[in-house]
Amino acid sequence: MTWPNDLISDVSSPVPQTMALPLSLRNSVTPPELELIASEELVEIIPLISMERTAFISGAYGPLRPPTKAKIPLWMAMNLKMKKKCHIVPPDWLSVDFLQERLVQETSHPEFSQFPFRFTEMAKLLLDVASDDIQNSDKIRSLLKDIREARQAKSREGLQKIDHSELSLPNLCSMEINEIRPFFVRAMGVLTQLTRDPARQIGV
User: Of 75, 96, 167, 177, which is most buried, counting CB atoms within 10 Å of its CB?
Assistant: First the structure.
């Protein structure tokens, strides 16, 4: 069986896209845009169809031979999954055991625990499209929410310690960086200006 024509016709738009706001009306990249970027990450699938190696703009993928696992971009896996032509194998970090361990680290240590850089976006896309391929998906959603809240609290605490030279928050992920970027840029601008003109600090 070869690559179905109906799948070829829409592989370029794997996730819902929203019209980007004008630069004057936004401070950072929107979450849907980050999800679109994350959809280029490779994931493992169990194909339910055969497909020869096929070239796309972003690269060539395949061949697919059921039931042999294969690695393909997330956007491609999502298209196949929505057409019931594959099962998506969840990444190791999208499991209850892994997330429970990371939650303990987040709540008991001041530093951020390590996650894949685009784990937030990938987790949302995978849970939206392939929740039936993910064991204990409801529990995983709950753990991700708790982890996000714990990491947001650390981000707020870190921003309170900002100075004019740097802000060190290692292991932040793409969505988290995107969220704090507008405030960070404005705050660093003000602090830099005050450093250059100390008289302003005393109201001269």
Answer: 75
